Automatic annotation (TrEMBL):
Reaction catalyzed: alpha,alpha-trehalose + H2O = alpha-D-glucose + beta-D-glucose
Protein name from the UniProt record: Trehalase
EC number(s) recorded for this UniProt protein: 3.2.1.28
Main enzyme class: hydrolase
SUPFAM superfamilies: Six-hairpin glycosidases
Signal peptide start-end: 1-33
GO BP of this protein: trehalose catabolic process
Single GO MF descriptor: alpha,alpha-trehalase activity
Alphabetized InterPro entries for the sequence: 6-hairpin_glycosidase_sf (IPR008928), 6hp_glycosidase-like_sf (IPR012341), Glyco_hydro_37 (IPR001661), Glyco_hydro_37_CS (IPR018232)
Keyword vocabulary terms for this entry: Glycosidase, Hydrolase, Signal
Family: Belongs to the glycosyl hydrolase 37 family.
Amino acid sequence: MAPFLYHTNRKSHFLFLFSVLILSQSLPPMALTNPLSPSSSCTKGPGPVIPVTPLVSFLVRVQETALQTYGKSNFDPKHYVDLSLKSNLSTTVEAFDKLPKTENGSVSVKDFEGFIGKYFNDAGDDVVYAEPVDFVPEPHGFLPKVENPEVRGWALEVHALWKNFSRKVSSSVLHHPELHTLLPLPRPVIIPGSRFTEVYYWDSYWVIRGLLASKMYETAKAIVTNLIFMLDTYGHVLNGARAYYTNRSQPPLLSAMVYEIYNRTGDVEFVKKSLPPLIKEYRYWNSDIHELIIRDAEQCNHFLNRYYAMWNKPRPESSTIVCSSLHDEELASKFLNDSEKQQFYRELASAAESGWDFSTRWMRNSSDFTTLSTTTILPVDLNIFILRMELDIAFLAKTVGENAITEDFLRASQKRQKAFSSIFWNENMGQWLDYWLNNGADCEEPQTWKAENQNQKVFASNFVPLWIDLFNSDIHLVEKVTKSLKNSGLLCAAGIATSLTNSGQQWDFPNGWAPLQHMIVEGLSKSASMEARTVAKDIAERWIKTNYVAYKKTGAMHEKYDVEKCGEFGGGGEYTPQTGFGWSNGVVLAFLEEFGWPKDKKIDCD
């Protein structure tokens, strides 16, 4: 049944896309004010802040004391804000305050370890194993295009990792949430792995793509249910399922998850339940903190979006170590007054909201981390995700007979599609470029588009618009962008590099990341251009090879890979390289499902 639905829904989506192109000629243009979002498009003053819970604030104190006690060597700040209490907070705080401390705030190792052992459970104890209800060792019809027995055996091992990383919150989290920073999610989750023992927002899209290849439809739906729980509880989908993430989101891909699950299952009831939360999330991303107006050369106003975290202090999960062991407060010490420091902390948190934490993409000066300016950038990929959200909601609403909603969101997508041509597109480069806002971006008046405000540095995100059918269906556009990609310097021995700058940050060269490989490859492969499809297949094969060889060498899948060297995992950034790993597993399975692997084709690095 599922394969039939998959192809049937693909056909219906093609017909829907065709209708979008027709309707875009007939629907009346949107007025200056976006009817789907609040009227204000700017923020005033210092910007909103969502405070953390008293438990998080206390755990930051414990974290700071641990740093003073143990030093920076092998210190992971996230460990301490993931601890859960054995008894109530007031009792634990009282015991902590009675610990004998030196002048610099440190506690003897013996006293500190005794305190931790007496009053805390280990980090990670708040999640327990959950047997997936739909896992089987080899699903019927699993990866039919994979004919090579060696590759099939590896794919089954990757498939089995879903079972290894399936978790649910402990009964203590459900019954005593005040003792935990982990949120009381109602359904089981797939965790990324290693230090990440909670579900993450944008990771979940590629986890779901892998689960669908593994025929684990109920597990995929459970992840969406948990994300909707966060949306209903906090007003947005959180970066991750921890109390210290309540002040920011991550790239908005919830609608894409719902669409992909419907595409495989045909579950209309699932769509009906998901549609209202999707509209709620759309309004969040088009609220005053995220939305600004840019006036193009033809005096047309475009509502576009940025990342903007609701936080202006050091991040609890990383407050004591970032950027070559410099912590947030040390970096902020460059700034002379509190308002500048608070703005820098907001830029840090907003970069984390982007998922690209960290990259020279967000820096005014690529050699100076303190020039991080995430909130003054209109990112190409964020606006593509929101365009996809508009198209997904329109399609899903049509599926359940909500035709008025469909028309509203088609109008919104029509407007945003035009913005990509006039604001982001660079004809000379054949790429879509991030747009730098003028200083003082938090203003009520539209900003006038300037060519020099396009960031002409090359990032993999410049090619992400190909992921959207509105763009990959234009063969002439695709061929121009494909040529640009081939000449960009991003295509390497083992995949697509994130940028051309080797800064030591993890979202820069030479690291390659599964989500970027997948979006660009999927976009190219959907095109009618033979050249684009050939490039897509070549990138996918390189990525599959490097994942396979690294797995055989290390026994693990990795969070990121060094695209200069086949079979090597990536490095850099604010924590040690992680294994597991949710989205890497999902993209490998998705690529093998789409492209397969011939029986006699070698998979070793050349």
